[in-house]
Amino acid sequence: MLEIIRRLGRQITNRLWRLGFASRFFLAIILHSGTSLRRLNLTLREIYFTGVLSLIIILVSGLFVGMVLGLQGYDTLQRYGSSEALGVLVALSLVRELGPVVAALLFASRAGSAITAEIGLMKATEQLSAMEMMAVDPIARVVAPRFWGGVISMPFLAALFSAMGVFGGYLVGVQLIGVDEGSFWAQMQASVDVREDVLNGVIKSFVFGVIVSWVAVFEGYDAEPTAEGVSGATTRTVVTSSLAILAADFVLTALMFRGT
């Protein structure tokens, strides 16, 4: 029994230590952001790597999510004689919830894991140590550009996901099923509010971008310099980011939409 208590205490202590180290690491990234942002080419390269190269999976996934919403939404609304409100259902579901959340989960799986693997391999091959020996701060040169590349890319990817989803809902609802096109767009325009819906979705996607990028760069920087260590860090990035996104989504939704 005493050994179980010791083991439990050791695990809690290690978790708290990692949380404190991650917080200090995040502060170091913020403090070194000026250096990385002044060298804009570094950040732009990471925006291309994390954002542009993720476009295919974001756009294709958004299209099919929108098409599924169109099918399921029409079947549900038709029971209550409200099939003309299909555009509202698709748009609000995507802009408020599915767009930021699903795009962030896909972003964590594709870009977050790649960032962790890249930084972890640089640590395993002692490239980060070589930078320190040459008086180059690896946080300013390697970590901060990747962090800001992910943070900047995430809102744009979520917006494109939502736009593609609305297009998918239009294809299924209007072109395939036969919902009136004028009602589809008119009710959507009248019901979707820029501040209450679109802006809150953008805020969500920005927060998710910070979470995923922070977890990705931290796990890569903290990975053990072995093949198994890098593999484990990549797995932890996807798992931790996904859980953090869903938890943050609940908190943000409760704060943003509790009065609506």
Task: Briefly note the structural class of the backbone.
Answer: mainly alpha
Helix content class: over 70%
Radius of gyration: 21 Å
What share of the residues does DSSP label as strand, in percent? Answer: under 5%
**Alpha carbon gap, first and last residue:** 51 Å
Number of strands: 0
Oligomer: single chain
Number of domains: 1
H/E series: HHHHHHHHHH
The stretches of 5 or more residues where confidence is low (pLDDT under 50) are none
Number of helices: 10
Mean pLDDT: 87
Give the CA-based shape.
elongated
Any overview of this molecule?
The structure is a single chain. With 260 residues, the chain is an all-alpha fold. The chain has one domain (10-257). 88% of the residues lie in helices and 0% in strands. It contains 10 helices and no strands. The longest helix has 40 residues, at 138-177. It is elongated and about 65 Å long.
